[in-house]
Write a structure and sequence with these properties.
This protein is mostly beta strands. It has five domains: about 130 residues, no CATH class; about 210 residues, Jelly Rolls (Sandwich), CATH 2.60.120.200; about 100 residues, no CATH class; about 100 residues, Roll (Phage tail proteins - horseshoe like beta roll fold); about 60 residues, no CATH class. It is built from four helices and 40 strands.
């Protein structure tokens, strides 16, 4: 992973898109990035961005996982005084199998990032929305201002004008920033017809609605519609019915081309006032579908083209025979129109994003400058002596900044002891760019221990030797901001897996770990014990989360840099034990939680090194697998067992997994 050149690496936040909420690969997906006191799934406080930037909203950047490829950002709202912002970020691709990781940079020393960050209507802002979006209304403008008041975020400029007795007081707090309050009497937003709004073959309409009135009796209301030129039917609309057999029915309706009639899809549900609902409907010349909060709840088959007309789009009312009607008393927010039928997976992810339940955040860690750094290299393997050796780094050590650095290598293996070993390090900082740094390696598994091994460091970047050296390790997230820690355990046996790392969190707090032990059994409380180094540093933060959820995630980085991420353990913290020595301290965290495997599966085991039987049950020791769970069927050779419990031991130089038969 690289970093964005020139930006302060201390001011960087990891953004993690929850892959478990993504049902298919999504391309150019616009995600909501909410900044404030409680943000995302883990309710993270991100107000530090405002502390750094103040009103300088464009001194930010979001990159993909490589740390350098920037994403477009639209600023819907930036309230420095209230320390809250609503941003929209275009993600090139979102995976359904692993978490997608982005990085938010914020640096007040930068010039405005105007190539990638902009307000509504700017080129970078419009670039967030792909070409299928024909109108996007954040509903965040004062409806009493100069017409057209309501701005379209896309390149199509389908801006809307407010009608009725609308005042600045109708711009109200909504699910996403601000929304427009419609009184149900004469308030509406009128958008003139344009070619971009004439969608004949496919359509998606989506938005957020909150009803202010609990309608009863025979009532027909239309929160959003596109009018037809003539006849008894609108071109399309979202409508609600109450009364008789239509009690609280929510449906979409589109007009037929073959006759003056409509096709409807929808269903009844007990909607309530004061509640935000994420509505959507789609049409693809096969089916008309209606969705609520990301779930399809009505489908009607139909195969005709949609009618097009020169009539306006109305928000807050219907449109019939050239006049508005069926006004709805509601708050409307985040209205979008597309000329494609967005997939159910897209709309489900949009719902999670809109309701700030898709992203989580983690701060990149900084280690105090006065402490020792340790570089621990273990289990380096190569299939050929002429290739460059891979180095998994876990700590870096120096007693003084002006002395020669030492590299403590515990297990280096080679058939030719006289060759030079190459250490390719991408981010070591030093003033003297042209010199080769020699690192003394005191422990080598070799018959020639008196030789010095030369390690070649090709990229040396720094403004001076007085600063602490830093080695950037990709992707373990801790509480503070400068650098990443990795716990890398065990040999790398796979031809496609190049790195393994373990991530530990306690609620929203990321923790470095020396290792962990666990025992997991289906239907019984799982046990987890985690060892945290530098216990004094983290003691106060841990104490604040003394009843929190302790989680271990294992990530495998493939040769193509894709990441396979699986949760290994999740327990409720019960015990905090601090052990202090003369120089160091550690904290051991212990917890339990009931676990159940709702969907047992078959898993092939690799690297079986031990088989035994005691108590009438078979026990297997094998290579670590992040796929297997108690209740699964483990397959090894011609044998198989139903897994009763799994025991893990993971540390800097050891990784073991033992499986016991149920």
């Amino acid at each position: 992973m690289g970093s964005l050149s020139g930006w302060n690496q201390n001011n960087r936040i990891a953004i993690i898109v929850d892959g478990s909420k993504i049902d298919e690969s999504l391309t150019n997906f616009p995600v909501r990035l909410h900044l404030g006191q409680t943000c995302g799934v883990n309710q993270t406080d991100l107000r530090r961005v405002f502390t750094e930037l103040g009103a300088n909203s464009k001194k930010i950047a979001v990159t993909t996982f490589d740390g350098t490829t920037q994403c477009y950002i639209e600023i819907e709202r930036w309230d420095n005084t209230g320390q809250v912002a609503e941003l929209w970020v275009k993600i090139p691709s979102v995976s359904p199998t692993i978490n997608t990781v982005l990085y938010l940079y914020y640096d007040n020393t930068q010039v405005d990032n105007s190539s990638y960050v902009g307000d509504i209507g700017s080129t970078p802002g419009q670039s967030v929305w792909d070409s299928a979006f024909k109108a996007v209304y954040h509903m965040s403008q004062d409806p009493s201002g100069p017409a057209p008041q309501i701005k379209d975020s896309t390149v199509n400029a389908n801006n809307g004008t407010s009608y009725g007795a609308m005042t600045s007081g109708d711009l109200v707090n909504a699910k996403i920033g601000k929304g427009i309050d419609h009184d149900g009497s004469d308030d509406r937003i009128n958008v003139p017809d344009s070619a971009s709004l004439d969608m004949a073959a496919a359509l998606t309409v989506e938005g957020i609605i909150k009803f202010n009135q609990d309608y009863s009796g025979a009532v027909w209301k239309v929160p959003i519609s596109k009018g037809a030129t003539s006849g008894n039917w609108r071109l399309w609309q979202l409508e609600i019915h109450t009364g008789g057999t239509q009690e609280k029915v929510w449906k979409a309706l589109v007009r037929k081309t073959s006759s003056d009639a409509g096709v409807a899809a929808g269903s009844a549900f007990a909607w309530a006032t004061g509640v935000d609902y994420n509505f959507a409907f789609t049409y693809d010349k096969q089916n008309l579908k209606v969705l609520k909060d990301g779930t399809v709840f009505g489908t009607t088959a139909w195969t005709e083209d949609l009618v097009v007309s020169n009539q306006p789009l109305n928000l807050g009312s219907g449109w019939y025979a050239g006049n508005p009607e069926d006004y709805t008393n509601c708050v409307l927010d985040e209205i979008r129109l597309s000329n494609v039928a967005r997939s159910a997976a897209w709309l489900k992810a949009t719902h999670y994003s809109n309701f700030d339940n898709l992203l989580s955040f983690a701060f990149l860690a900084k280690i105090a400058m006065d402490q020792q750094w340790v570089l621990d290299v273990f289990l380096l393997k190569s299939s050929g002596l002429n290739q460059q050796w891979a180095l998994d780094v876990f700590f870096l050590k120096s007693l003084e900044l002006n002395q020669q650095w030492t590299l403590d290598v515990a297990l280096l293996k080679s058939l030719e002891l006289n060759q030079q070993w190459i250490l390719d390090v991408a981010l070591l900082k030093s003033l003297e760019l042209n010199q080769q740094w020699i690192l003394n390696v005191p422990v080598l598994e070799s018959s020639g221990l008196d030789q010095q091994w030369a390690l070649e460091i090709p990229v040396l970047n720094s403004s001076g030797l007085t600063q602490q050296w830093s080695l950037l390790i990709p992707a373990l997230f801790l509480q503070s901001l400068q650098q990443l820690w990795d716990l890398l355990a065990g040999p790398i046996p796979s031809v496609v897996l190049k790195q393994v790392r373990y991530i530990c969190t306690l609620d929203d707090l990321g923790l470095p770990i020396e290792g962990f032990n666990g025992r997991f059994k289906d239907g019984d409380p799982s046990y987890l014990s985690v060892r945290v180094p530098d216990g004094k540093r983290f003691a106060d933060e841990i104490a604040l989360r003394s009843t929190g959820e302790l989680v271990i995630i294992r990530e495998g980085v493939m040769l193509d840099n894709s990441i396979k991420s699986d949760e290994i353990a999740r327990v409720n913290l019960e015990t905090i034990r601090q052990d202090r020595g003369a120089r160091n301290s550690t904290v051991t965290l212990v917890g339990h939680k009931q676990t159940t495997n709702a969907a047992p599966k078959r898993v092939d085991l690799e690297g079986v090194s031990y088989r035994g039987e005691y108590g009438g049950k078979r026990h297997i020791r094998c290579m670590f697998s992040q796929d297997i769970r108690p209740g699964d069927t483990a397959v090894f050779g011609v044998e198989e067992i139903v897994v009763g419990d799994i025991s893990y031991t993971v540390g800097a130089s050891i990784t073991t997994m033992e499986i016991a038969e149920a």
